[in-house]
Amino acid sequence: MHQGLAPEPPLIWLLAGTGDGPPLAAALLERGWRLRVSVVSAAAARMYAPHPQLALRVGDLADDAAVAQELEQHRPRWVVDATHPFALRISERLERVCGGRGQPLLRLRRPTVGADPGGGPARCERLAGLEALAALDLRSERLLLAIGSRHLPQAIAASNARAHVARILDRPSSLQLALAAGLSDGQLACLRPSGAPQPGALEPGALERALCRRWRISAVLCRAGGGRSEAIWHGVAQQLGLRLLLLQRPSGPCADGLPLEPLLEMLGHA
User: Fold this and answer.
1) Which residues contact 14 (CB under 8 A, 6 or more apart)?
2) Which of 144, 223, 231, 265 is the most buried (most CB within 10 A)?
């Protein structure tokens, strides 16, 4: 009775966000793969177009057991780590659990933004870590922190800037962390991830420029994540003549990942 049914395509478990994830998912679906995509929030899940071969998992993978359970239940042919370069905990967890189970794992390495001569703003200063803020004279600066909410206390403690404001995600947990770091409601912009540009949407960087003008920002601290967000801050800093402080990527599992095209070539077609 089932002789005419085509076999189900093999599965890739993709862990990603709103920047690299949707276009990578679309490319893999076009190549015939079945996908299970893990994202951390419902807002991130909405960035993925519905597809009959796409399933979404929303929520954190809190420990090694959660990763192992996913692998045991769904048995993917490949696991692809396309998480943020600064999301070290999940990348290390994937490497540890997949390595222990002999599960094939590939990582996406984001490109470097503004690496070519003249590609970045003239006032870009690269920092090895948040502790390096303590060595900078920021007493005349109004500093915008675009580094996520988890590291706000460390950044504010190390910085001697005249004023601090922050852009954070529109999640209750992000707001709680920012308030706990000592920032008030008037020092926060809670914004939903925008994903890829959509028809009719504001041009990339328009909202960031508006925030900088409203708060009279003179310096921005962001992360060298290599994605759309970093590229936007490079452009905003250059356009408004801001001092850009750029946290360098930490060393970790994703440092030896593959760029997009070699990654797709390695995965091939289903």
Assistant:
1) 21, 24, 25, 28, 35, 36, 37, 38, 80, 82
2) 144
Cβ 57 vs Cβ 36: under 8 Å: yes
pLDDT tens string 91-135:
999 999 999 999 999 999 887 765 443 444 446 899 999 999 999
Mean pLDDT for the stretch of residues 131-140? 95
- The domain locations on the chain are 11-111+251-267, 129-247
What's the CATH code, domain 11-111+251-267?
A: 3.40.50.720
Q: How many residues belong to the chain?
A: 270
- pLDDT at residue 40, as a whole number: 85
Q: Among residues 232, 168, 238, 187, which one has the least CA distance to residue 206?
A: 232
pLDDT of 200: 53
**Residue whose C-alpha is closest to residue 39's, from 63, 59, 19:** 59
In the CATH scheme, what is the code of domain 129-247? 3.40.50.620
Could you give the dihedral angle defined by the CA atoms of residues 191, 195, 196 and 198, in that order, rounded to the nearest 10 degrees? -60
- Using DSSP, how many helices (H) and how many strands (E) does the chain show? 9, 11
Q: What is the DSSP letter of 165?
A: E
- Mean pLDDT value across residues 63-88: 93
